[in-house]
Amino acid sequence: MAEILLKNAYVIDPISGINGEVMDIAISGSRIVEDASPQAEVIDCQGFLTLPGGIDSHTHTSGTKVNFGRYMSPEDMRAGRTAKKGHMHITSGYSVPTTYGNSYRYSALGYTTLVEGAMAPLEARHTHEEFKFTPLQDSFANTLFDGNWGMLRALEDGDIKRAAAIIAWTLTAVKGFAIKLTNPGGTEAWGFGKNVSCINETIPTFDLTPAEIIKGTIKANEILHLPHSVHLHCNNLGTPGNFTCTIGTFGHVPDVNDKRQSLYATHVQFHSYGGSGWGDFCSKSEPVANMVNFRPQIVIDMGQVMFGRTTTMTADGPMEFNLYRLHHDKWSNHDVELETGSGIIPVNYRRKNLVNSIMWAIGLELALLVKNPWQCLLTTDNPNGAPFVKYPEIIALLMSKRYRDAEFATIHQDTEKRVALPAIERELDWYDIAVMTRAGQARALGITDLGKGHLSPGAEADIAIYPIRINEIDPSAEYERIVKGFSQTEYTIKRGRVVSRRGDAIIDGENTTFWVKPKVPAAYDMQHDTAFQELFERYYSIRMSNYPVQEEYLHRNHCIETETDL
Ligand SMILES: [Zn+2]
Q1: Nearest CA to 115 among 60, 36, 46, 70?
Q2: In terms of C-beta density within 10 A (0-12 exposed, 13-18 middle, 19 or more buried), how is residue 130 classed?
Q3: Chain centroid offset of residue 257 CA
Q4: SS3 per-residue string spanning 204-226
């Protein structure tokens, strides 16, 4: 087996309790080991910052929605073209790049694992096919259940075990990883041209409220012992005054798992808005962050907005329709049969736009006001808030008050009265950043036992080595060096092989798709449940037997079997 010895690495590995230690790391095959033999290839890390490979716990890189974003924006495809170079394919696209574009650019930033934020079960094949051509990262798929009729009927009947069984069958069938709820109840209502405005409103098509859907799926999630918690895109995304809905939602979440959070709330920047309309729109990051600070059962990600062009895409169909009514630009909208919705709109976040400036501030405020970095992870909800290539700038903004002030001077002048950011002195440190970009993700996703997010012996050898000597940089003052240092690794190692070197991909990784298969007793096997079969026959456009994704669609895969309480 090939061996590598990384010499003189400056390691921050929060899960292993290492916070800045110059040490050697031995790799044998795909794993980290105690010692390497004298035959090992030696890489001198020169005291460079060495972290576990980056993990993006919420991004949109693969699937029908992403691909439609590519079709819709030929100007975006022209913006990000790179020529064939060595081993690397041609790439194109800036905010919605080709699969290789995503993979190479993430790898240059040191990322080795990606979670697709939203996979519609009915369209799962496309997602898996794109995972296959994202060769330098492992993939996980959040699977959409917000409008799943089988599950909603079971929840309406108060039958949590049946809801869990339907979730188990669906995740297994489509090779998904976690339960994703997008605007629960709202996307279901959107199939009939409606939406819901708060978590306690009964949805039009089932005798259920969003709060009941969220609580029911949290219970089902724990019955199935899924690695990750329910992954929620709250109701009312992007609406002034929506922070009350967000806080109300967090208040409903029970603390039911001692290993990880009970609820992961994504892109919370888009859900921390005050005001009664766009005229008095303002930040409400403080009450939202306070709620997180008092509730360890909640983990959030930022959903940071950065200025410039990007593409919004979400399963939240009604939200995208509202966005279209604001922008009057090109748009797409889609209802996925009995499951969920989707919408896509290209946008340009501008510094001179007051609303955009406030949104920019809110994401940073959340990361700075949530006290525990394990509870607020770094994302842009790529590409909704910004393309992920902006991550180095976000890291620098979080580490430097001076950088934030310099940027603040360039945005809409009325922003100051409506946000908390100028008053926040906190500057995050290297350890905080390591938590917010890999360790926190691994723990929140429940994948540390798979060897993700840490560098102890037995872990997967997914490692990012940045050309940063932390003793030689003052992040507060030299923020430009932070941006540069995190923009391109010296080496990115994926499963024990150097896949990227100074920004160039040099070989394809042995990427793997991870999916879950809850072990379900015969009485709860939906494959043989006549009522469930009938639902398919009556309402779906395809046969139940054609629905499951065959394993051949997955390039390499790792099935995580879970014991259940069914
Ligand atoms: Zn998303």
Answers
A1: 60
A2: buried
A3: 21
A4: CCCCCCHHHHHHHHHHHHHHCCC
Q: Hey, how many other C-beta atoms are within 10 angstroms of the C-beta on 124?
A: 25
Tokens of 64: 């029908």
What percent of the chain stands above pLDDT 90?
Answer: 86
Q: How far is the CA of 28 from the centre of ligand 1 (A)?
A: 36
3-state helix, strand, coil in the chain (%, to 5): 40, 25, 40
pTM for the model = 0.97
pLDDT digits (tens, 9 = 90+) for 419-461: 999 999 999 999 999 999 999 999 999 999 999 999 999 999 9
Angle at 233 between CA 306 and CA 367, to 5 degrees: 45
> How far is it, in rounded angstroms, from Cα 118 to Cα 127?
10
Q: Which residue has the tokens 């560098």?
A: 455
What sign has the CA pseudo-torsion 280, 361, 288, 111? positive
Helix/strand/coil (H, E, C) string of 243-254?
HHHHHHHHHCCC
Q: Percent of the chain beyond pLDDT 70?
A: 100
Q: How remote is the CA of residue 124 from the centroid of ligand 1, in Å?
A: 16
Count of beta carbons in the 10 Å neighbourhood of residue 232: 29
Nearest-CA neighbor of 486 among 58, 128, 106, 73? 106
| 127 CA from centroid of ligand 1 (Å) | 15
Centre of ligand 1 from the C-alpha of residue 429, in Å = 27
For residue range 100-140, list pLDDT tens digits in order: 999 999 999 999 999 999 999 999 999 999 999 999 999 99
Cα of 526 to ligand 1 centre, how many Å? 29
CA of 119 to the centre of ligand 1 (A): 10
> H or E element: which one contains 74?
helix 74-79
Instruction: Please state, in angstroms and rounded to a whole number, the distance separating the CA atoms of residues 327 and 91.
Output: 29
Task: State in Å: Cα 329 to ligand 1 middle.
Answer: 21
CA of 56 to the centre of ligand 1 (A): 11
Concatenate the DSSP letters of all residues of 419-488 into one string: -SGGG------HHHHHIIIIIHHHHHHT-GGGT-S--STTSB--EEEES--GGG--TTT-HHHHHHHHHS
At residue 39, the pLDDT reads: 95
